[in-house]
Specification:
The chain is α+β, with helices and mostly antiparallel strands. The strands form two sheets. Strands 7, 8, 9, 10, 11, 12, 13 and 14 form an eight-stranded mixed sheet that branches. The chain has a six-stranded antiparallel sheet with strand order 2-1-6-5-3-4. Helix 5 links the parallel strand 10 and strand 11. The two termini are about 25 Å apart. The longest helix has 15 residues. The chain folds into two domains: about 100 residues, D-amino Acid Aminotransferase, Chain A, domain 1 (2-Layer Sandwich); about 150 residues, D-amino Acid Aminotransferase, Chain A, domain 2 (Alpha-Beta Barrel).
């Protein structure tokens, strides 16, 4: 059950026009937050990223104070939930002026349960570090990523681990990854064009505070053959242990557990 759906701050049951850019062309950006006890977590960080995404797409946003108020309003209706903020360019028809739409609503989401099993999938659509106009933007066009998730599901896995054509590890379709080799936490570098995940950023802060060495870089998927722990990180998943990547098996280890506890303390 969703909260009230707000479109440009007004309750709406009319939905999005079929002529909208998001429907016809996937032209827009979005954010997903979680609320805990009716308080949106890391609200400012999510709004910072939304503003960067909209600027890259050259879509104007309402004042930040309005966005915050709309998000807090739907969180009050759904205290433990996911909050979705979708920004569209407006009409995609050539003879109609495009009036941007901001859609905000919340719905229950308990997150992922248990460890995840990931299938490595080559992602030729990923920029993989090549700079371009929308580098780092969280845009609506997720069809290739979701296709990778469906492929993983068909093959008996929970989700995908995206690789470059040269088999460098990137990220999941909707999450980031890290792993432990020895006592070192390794994770793909943002220079590879992966999303600057807010959860990833906080986990790296927690790891540094706990004295866990961190290396960001580029590794082939074969690197996981030396890893003792693997984890997935996102707003929805929080910190989720990974039990399999392809045919490689892993157990939830102490560093994953420590980072999950540290993250949980941020939410209390």
């Amino acid at each position: 059950m969703t909260s009230t759906i707000l479109i440009n701050g007004e309750p709406s049951v009319a939905g999005v026009p079929v002529t909208d850019s998001s429907v016809l062309r996937g032209d827009g950006c979005f954010e997903v937050l979680k609320a805990y006890k009716a308080v949106p977590f890391a609200l400012d960080a999510h709004l910072d990223r939304l503003e960067r995404s909209a600027a890259a797409l050259q879509i104007g946003l309402p004042p930040r104070a309005d966005l915050s108020r709309w998000i807090e309003s739907v969180a009050s209706e759904c205290p433990e939930c996911a909050i979705r903020v979708v920004v569209t360019r407006g009409s995609a028809l050539p003879d109609e002026p495009g009036e941007p739409l901001v859609i905000v609503y919340a719905h229950p989401w308990t997150g992922s349960r248990g460890p995840a099993r990931l299938l490595p999938v080559v992602a030729p659509w990923h920029s993989a570090g090549i700079d371009w106009d929308l580098a780092g933007a969280k845009v609506l066009s997720y069809a290739p990523n979701l296709s990778a998730s469906r492929r993983a599901s068909r093959e008996g896995f929970d989700d995908a681990l995206l690789l470059t054509v040269d088999r460098l590890m990137l990220e999941g379709p909707t999450f980031c990854v890290a792993w432990v080799v020895g006592e070192v936490l390794e994770t793909p570098s943002l220079e590879l064009g992966i999303l600057d995940s807010i959860t990833r950023r906080l986990v790296l802060e927690d790891a540094a505070r706990l004295g866990v060495p961190i290396v960001e870089g580029e590794w082939l998927v074969d690197r996981l053959g030396e890893a003792s722990e693997v984890m997935a990180m996102s707003t929805i998943r929080e910190i989720q242990p990974v039990s399999m990547v392809g045919e490689m098996a892993f157990s939830e280890g102490p560093i994953t557990s420590d980072l999950a506890r540290a993250f949980a303390q941020r939410l209390s």
